[in-house]
Amino acid sequence: MGSLFEENKKALEKTVIYFSRSRSLFIIIFCVLLICFGIYVFFKINYFLALALFIGAAIGIHRNLKLYKDQRPQLIISDKGITDNKGKFKSWSAIKNEEIVPKARFYNDSSGDYLTYDYHNRNEKISIDELDIGIGKLNYLLRIYRKRSQKS
To answer: Where are the strands (E) in 1-152, listed by range?
Structure first.
């Protein structure tokens, strides 16, 4: 299995990762449907429940519209290192213990899946839940680029 990561030439020179537009669009559509349901609830069931649905849907639409419009790269991975969403480049030689850490989603607002790594003896984490790449593929690419950096 290790030779697969070393010899894989199909992976690009660098991988640019963005916010998932399809995920954001799905949530926006769901929130619009929630508003429609809220109108029904308002007239037929309960004013306060309808108000809660409207507020939740409005927050969801606002947050996901921002993500949908954001076209900046959130993560760039190459054989030279990782560039985060702030544009800060981190060389593989300074990165240690990179891994994907899944967190329980029911615990609190900051839970979710993270790319974590030690950079100059400081632990850093990047949320990957809203990105357009899955955990498996990201983990695979991290191994490929790490191996490539060790060869050069």
So the answer is: 14-17, 75-78, 81-83, 89-91, 95-102, 113-119, 122-127
| β 14-17/75-78 pair status | antiparallel
Contact predicate 78/13, CB 8 Å: yes
- Number of other residues whose CB lies within 10 A of the CB of residue 140: 16
User: How far apart, in Å, are the Cα atoms of 16 and each of 12, 26, 85, 124?
Assistant: 10, 22, 11, 19
Q: Work out whether strand 81-83 and strand 75-78 pair parallel, antiparallel, or are unpaired.
A: antiparallel
Query: Given strand 89-91, what is the order of strands in its sheet?
Result: 14-17, 75-78, 81-83, 89-91
pLDDT, one tens digit per residue, over 40-58 is: 888 988 889 999 999 999 9
The end-to-end CA distance of the chain, in Å, is: 21
pLDDT digits (tens, 9 = 90+) for 68-122: 998 899 999 998 999 988 889 998 988 898 888 877 554 555 567 888 889 988 9
Q: Return the half-sphere exposure (C-beta side, CA atoms, 13 A cut-off) of residue 71.
A: 1
